[in-house]
Task: structure prediction
Amino acid sequence: MVVVMQEGAKEEQIQHVIDRLVSMGFDIHRSTGASQTVLGAVGVPADFDPRDVEVLDGVREVVRITQPYKLASRAFRPQGTVVQLPRGVQIGGKEVAIAAGPCSVETPEQINLIADRVAGAGAKILRGGAFKPRSSPYSFQGHGEKGLVMMREAAEKSGLLVCSEVMDASQIQMMLPYVDIFQVGARNMQNYFLLRSLGTLSKPVLLKRGLSATIEELLLSAEYIMAGGNHNVILCERGIRTFETATRNTFDISAIPVIQKLSHLPIVADPSHGIGIRDKVAPMARAAVAAGADGLLLEVHNDPDHAYSDGAQSLYFEQFDKLMGELRIIAPAVGRTIS
Amino acid sequence: MSVEDWRRKIDEIDKRLVELLNERSRCVVEIGRIKQVSGDALYQPDREKQVLDGVVKANPGPLPDAAIRRLFERILDEARSVERIVMHGGDGKKEN
Result:
């Protein structure tokens, strides 16, 4: 960390800052300039808050050089993490993993039909919600465990894995036999109790970026899971809230290369939520793969017009097929494959 | 004298500097041990000021006073670091 003192800071102010930093456990490298003094502080304590130094008299700026997250940082595993799943599926390897399915699990017929179709088109993972965190308490809330049973059966028949959202730590044990990946939704990204609970498992966790979360906050949430011992974390960009109203969210494609630089964890993209409007999902999906995403989460529905939730952003089967064909052309251009 | 001759002379001076810096450091280690018992603060700004003023006063040049001050700031930085290790029960040696 570098502490830049104000121009003309008094010697007593500089001494006070050094005194505080020394008592916090830092080693100080002082550089006295003609008008400005800079203090290099080495050995950042784990619970350090830069604001404690910023508020001291005479301090102009505190620049933190190390990241507040350790396990999630690229330096922890420079070669990158490949999350291993059943049936030989990997996320973070050469192949771009496609997860597809409805927003909500509605009926056995619906989920079987969708699983069959998306598996045929090349998807490896069936995504779908059994618990639906909706903006309104009066909207469809999901089938719960019954929905998970339907999903598991459909996935087994089609040779897919299951990814479904866990809303609360109390659901984890019940969900364990049904899911291959626990999804943490955007609204729960900073539910630290849930993250800690998932950290005690070995089952992979797909962590979605919160609607207003910075990339650093997303990586700190990943750190919560990893600190508990579960290093099988998959990050997911799903769009953030901006001033733009033309789309549901602004899909932050730049997050993909940024995260790949900062972290060793795989990063997948959810263009369905990222954009929220069906006809714009495919272009964003193509862009995400071109930008280096390790996988995609796509909402696909047999009858989007009558879907219980998020119909407007769900792809028709034909659109999904066409998109998969396009992705198979794009992926090799960036050194990836799609089966 | 040739460049090589001057460089040989510099190498000899550097060896003496290393010896002197370590001799200084041994004194710091002893102070660290005393402070470990007495509980006195690691960082003593008045004493550091005294050291810096003293070396500047003793500076005959050609190095400018500001340069001497900067060099000794680095020496003090390292001395504090050594002293901290001693005060925490180490022998004053850092790994890096």
Remarks:
- The mean pLDDT of chain B is 90.
- Residues 3-87 of chain B form a domain with the Chorismate Mutase Domain, subunit A fold (CATH 1.20.59.10).
- Chain B touches chain A through 15 residues (CB under 8 Å).
- Residues 3-38 of chain B form the longest helix (36 residues).
